[in-house]
């Protein structure tokens, strides 16, 4: 609170609070990235600075020295009498386009003072005393009006038409006057210009100041400009520095009061009569030859730097609206220019047509749901729905920096992180390295609901027993059990909540009257069911609804490779790129569970998936080494990981998902996500009109977080509660003759028992056994019995009760609110949830009204579209987050390219799929795999010889 007070002593925040202002500034930063794209021009490569695009000088050997006679009131922190520091200096034109130096323009200076390895201060100034804009909104409006203007006609149109439309006629007139006064000045030498900070900064205990850099007395006057030389300012500086030092006096004007020295208004001058100019130091650019190879290399390093007035300390932080906006704006602009942040412009036709198209489909869907429309209309309907979900159902839960804080200059991007996935998911977004890293928070698709009074209403034990527990196995006949194993394999890569250790802190659920629960092996019956509570993140004044993800939510194969370097290296062979295997199987740890990236909730299905993809990694290592024998061991490992992770993403997108959502629209839509739309003019026309970016597969586009930093969400976790897929019993068969080996229960193939069965059965027969059998349907009364009394970490839990209780305590809205938040009509009666009379009767017995129905219960009860393995409501979270997992990831978009993956890797992914992975390691299964469906559809069973079906 004290920090907020110190900031607001001189400042007033737009929207009434730093948080509200931050939202505005983030949007303005995105708009500046669009300005950069327009300034790039046709045929240009790369993105320039949004402003000050053309440099005249960049040096690393300047120095700043403070005067011995520095006034006592101005000595603070790094500013001390006689102190001297090295500095980096960049002099430039102010325009966002590289134009001839004789063109009317402002000029600028950027100075980075290097106090120590940990402390630097960036000083930025322009050769006119005040800004043309009072605040950030005006500043960006001007930039947008002038974006891409390269000739007098375009510039006049921007100033006289675009700008007034954006800010109003009187404001535009004032801004034009300032700009014209500033650019009318003819500049012959950047060394003889005075540069003003415009905005104020704190100056330690002295309070706010504006600073300026003015030419030191002496020195040669500016020559008459050579109008025939487009680079006259650079050439003039080179000639001047070849003869003598270039020196500037650093001066400050101190804050007097808001009337005479306003902090918030960047367009208001601080007159010398009110705030005298006080010299405090001298900036010296030493005599040198700036044409040598060494000097040119230094200039390139300066060009690759990003200057920001917020790269300082809190004692010297920038002040005022314009300055506060500069932190987000400059970081976005620098990231865009340096290729670490991206901006995709939406075509105007998409912007204009999107609104009526979405409105039309909202109206249509009141009477006809998307899945009952003709194919092309249903696909367009899904596009419109996804656009609405992106707009309204992405909620960031990370604490925004508001107000902005001073920070050190960010470390340069680790070169290894540019070409390979990090162990913990960091630097997947190079502009925000911690986005999506282990320890980041779960996001939200819907605003959370904190109702502790309803945690146990109705009793979750009663709900589970009456509505979830399996009464008779209901198969999902279009799938095989590999589909159930696959989704658990994926979820372990994406999401995991931290739990307290058993006995530390528990959730207690009261048992219904007349029943008891044994919470530990051999323990006494109790009147409560107890299980470990999730470890949340506590923020002052907020309900306890925030949790961190202990795995990275990127599609990076962390379930195979691990989430930290120590684990990842322990899983590798001692001196090679391959993963450790023992006779083709995962090594077993001291606890009897295999060693792999994520091995909780272990069972035979997970063993199959982990073993299969560990072998796939090793096969890739062999292929990469053979094709590129000079590639290092580490490079082979990381490249194989990239390829395996992308192949997994492709399999999930174009195989698993169309298998569980078996409709033509989903099959076409998901394949469009990966490889672009079918060669159908009507489909392409619809996308061209409404979402042109979808005309290519997502891997051919740029990363896009859709204005919200990437994360997976608590709502996503809820819809992926698919435990009914797990059968309670399994028949293990050998693939050659189809004979039964044994029949086992789930308890016989989970936990420490799983790997013994896996090794005895072998990967080929395990795959075959799971491939010919059906999983359970995701519906009510089909929760596996084995998981309703399940031992985990010394606890005995009913996982169905845990699922219900976790969802309530994490603040996920209940079913009716969940539906409404995802743009579906609310249900008014239990009959609106399900058409099955028995289900309706049971819902009415358990719940007092439809608004009480648990989210998971409603999703399971809902009648899904034809061919769907889960509900249409759950599907809405899916269509939003499924594309987001690809679209946000640079390794699946802008860096999905042969330079990182190798040509071999790109071909491996393009040709690969679940079938190819299975056949590479178990070629004897070729005849059993489906001919015209994915490997997640039921396989052809080998019929045993008569009399041998029992395997006896």
Automatic annotation (TrEMBL):
Keyword Iron (UniProt): yes
CDD domains for this protein: PIOX_like (cd09818)
Domain of life per record: Bacteria
GO molecular function: catalase activity; heme binding; metal ion binding; oxidoreductase activity, acting on single donors with incorporation of molecular oxygen, incorporation of two atoms of oxygen
Enzyme class: oxidoreductase
EC number: 1.11.1.6
Domain Catalase core: 48-343
Residue runs in coiled coils: none
BP-aspect Gene Ontology terms: defense response; fatty acid biosynthetic process; oxylipin biosynthetic process; response to oxidative stress
Swiss-Prot/TrEMBL keywords: Dioxygenase, Fatty acid biosynthesis, Fatty acid metabolism, Heme, Iron, Lipid biosynthesis, Lipid metabolism, Metal-binding, Oxidoreductase, Oxylipin biosynthesis, Peroxidase, Plant defense
A family per Pfam: Catalase
InterPro entries: A_dioxygenase, Catalase, Catalase_core, Catalase_sf, Haem_peroxidase_animal, Haem_peroxidase_sf, Haem_peroxidase_sf_animal, Oxylipin_biosynth_metab
Co-factor(s): Ca(2+)
Gene3D superfamilies reported for this sequence: Catalase core domain, Haem peroxidase domain superfamily, animal type
PANTHER family the record matches: ALPHA-DIOXYGENASE 1 (PTHR11903:SF11), PROSTAGLANDIN G/H SYNTHASE (PTHR11903)
Protein name (database record): Catalase
Species, as recorded: Streptomyces rimosus subsp. rimosus (strain ATCC 10970 / DSM 40260 / JCM 4667 / NRRL 2234)
Taxon lineage: Bacteria, Bacillati, Actinomycetota, Actinomycetes, Kitasatosporales
């Amino acid at each position: 609170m004290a920090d907020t007070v110190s900031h607001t002593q001189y400042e007033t925040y737009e929207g009434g609070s730093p948080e509200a202002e931050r939202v505005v500034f983030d949007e303005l930063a995105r708009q500046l990235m669009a300005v950069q794209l327009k300034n790039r021009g046709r045929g240009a490569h790369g993105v320039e600075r949004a402003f000050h695009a053309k440099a005249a000088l960049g040096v690393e050997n300047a120095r700043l020295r403070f005067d011995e006679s520095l006034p006592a009131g101005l000595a603070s922190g790094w500013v001390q009498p006689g102190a001297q520091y090295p500095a980096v200096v960049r002099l430039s034109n102010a325009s966002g386009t590289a134009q001839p130096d004789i063109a009317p323009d402002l000029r600028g200076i950027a100075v980075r003072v290097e106090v120590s390895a940990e402390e630097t201060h960036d000083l930025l100034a322009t050769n006119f005393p005040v800004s043309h804009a009072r605040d950030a909104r005006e500043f960006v409006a001007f930039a947008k009006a002038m974006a891409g203007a390269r000739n007098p006609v375009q510039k006049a149109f921007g100033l006289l038409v675009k700008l007034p439309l954006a800010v109003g006629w009187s404001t535009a007139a004032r801004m034009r006057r300032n700009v014209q006064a500033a650019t009318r000045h003819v500049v012959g030498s950047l060394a003889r210009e005075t540069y003003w900070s415009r905005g104020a900064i704190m100056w330690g205990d002295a309070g706010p100041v504006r600073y300026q850099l003015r030419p030191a007395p002496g020195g040669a006057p500016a020559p008459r400009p050579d109008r025939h030389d487009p680079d006259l300012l650079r050439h003039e500086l080179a000639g001047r520095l070849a003869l003598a030092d270039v020196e500037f006096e650093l001066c400050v004007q101190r804050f007097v009061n808001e009337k005479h020295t306003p902090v918030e208004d960047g367009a208001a001058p601080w007159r010398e009569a009110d705030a005298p100019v006080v010299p405090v130091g001298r900036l010296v650019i030493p005599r040198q030859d700036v044409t040598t190879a060494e000097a040119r290399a230094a200039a390139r390093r300066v060009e690759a730097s990003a200057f920001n007035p917020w790269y300082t300390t809190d004692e010297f932080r920038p002040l005022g609206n314009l300055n506060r906006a500069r932190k987000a704006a400059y970081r976005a602009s620098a990231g865009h220019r340096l290729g670490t942040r991206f901006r995709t412009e939406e075509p105007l036709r998409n912007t204009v047509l999107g609104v009526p198209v979405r409105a039309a489909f909202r109206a249509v869907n009141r009477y006809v749901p998307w899945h009952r429309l003709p194919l092309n209309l249903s696909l367009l309907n899904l596009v419109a729905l996804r656009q609405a979900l992106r707009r309204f159902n992405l909620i960031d839960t990370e604490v925004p920096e508001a107000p902005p804080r001073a920070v050190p200059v960010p470390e340069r991007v680790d070169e290894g992180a540019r070409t390979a996935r990090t162990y913990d998911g960091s630097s997947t977004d190079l502009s925000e390295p911690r986005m999506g890293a282990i320890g980041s928070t779960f996001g939200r698709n819907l605003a959370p609901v904190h109702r502790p009074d309803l945690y146990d209403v109705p009793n979750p034990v009663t709900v589970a027993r009456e509505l979830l527990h399996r009464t008779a196995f209901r198969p999902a006949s279009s799938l095989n059990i590999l589909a159930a194993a696959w989704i658990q394999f994926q979820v372990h890569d994406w999401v995991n909540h931290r739990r307290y250790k058993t006995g530390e802190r528990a959730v207690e659920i009261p048992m219904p009257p007349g029943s008891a629960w044994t919470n530990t092996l051999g323990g006494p019956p109790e009147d409560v069911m107890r299980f470990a509570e999730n470890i949340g993140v506590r923020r002052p004044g907020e309900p306890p609804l925030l949790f961190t993800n202990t795995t990275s939510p990127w599609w990076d194969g962390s379930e195979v490779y691990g989430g930290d370097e120590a684990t990842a290296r322990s899983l590798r062979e001692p001196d090679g790129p391959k993963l450790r295997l023992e006779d083709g199987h995962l090594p077993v740890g001291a606890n009897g569970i295999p060693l792999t990236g994520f091995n909780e909730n272990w069972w035979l299905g997970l063993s199959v998936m982990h073993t299969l993809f560990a072998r796939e990694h090793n096969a890739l290592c062999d292929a990469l080494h053979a094709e590129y024998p000079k590639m290092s061991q580490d490079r082979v490992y990381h490249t194989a990981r990239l390829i395996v992770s992308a192949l997994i993403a492709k399999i999930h997108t174009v195989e698993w998902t169309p298998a569980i959502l078996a409709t033509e629209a989903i099959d076409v839509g998901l394949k469009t996500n990966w490889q672009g739309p079918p060669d159908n003019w009507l489909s392409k026309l619809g996308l061209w009109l409404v979402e042109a970016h979808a005309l290519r597969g997502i891997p051919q586009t740029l990363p896009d977080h859709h204005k919200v930093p990437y994360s997976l969400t608590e709502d996503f976790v809820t819809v992926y509660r698919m435990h009914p897929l797990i059968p309670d019993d399994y028949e293990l068969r050998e693939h050659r003759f189809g004979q039964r080996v044994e029949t086992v229960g789930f308890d016989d193939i989970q936990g420490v028992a799983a790997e013994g069965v896996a090794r005895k059965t072998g990967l080929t027969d395990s795959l075959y056994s799971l491939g010919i059998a059906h999983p359970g349907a995701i519906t009510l009364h089909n929760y596996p019995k084995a998981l309703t009394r399940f031992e985990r970490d010394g606890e005995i839990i009913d996982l169905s009760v845990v699922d219900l209780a976790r969802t309530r305590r994490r603040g996920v809205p209940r079913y009716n609110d969940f539906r409404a938040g995802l743009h579906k009509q609310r249900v008014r009666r239990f009959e609106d949830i399900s058409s099955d009379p028995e289900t309706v009767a049971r819902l009415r017995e358990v719940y007092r009204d439809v608004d009480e129905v648990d989210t998971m219960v409603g999703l399971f009860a809902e009648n899904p579209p034809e061919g769907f393995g889960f509900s249409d409501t759950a599907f809405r979270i899916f269509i939003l987050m499924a594309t987001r997992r690809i679209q946000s990831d640079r390794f699946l978009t802008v860096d999905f390219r042969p330079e990182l993956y190798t040509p071999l890797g790109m071909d491996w992914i393009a040709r690969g799929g679940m079938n190819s992975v299975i056949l590479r390691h178990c070629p004897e299964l070729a005849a059993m795999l489906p001919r015209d469906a994915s490997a997640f559809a039921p396989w052809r069973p080998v019929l045993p010889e008569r009399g041998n079906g029992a395997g006896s």
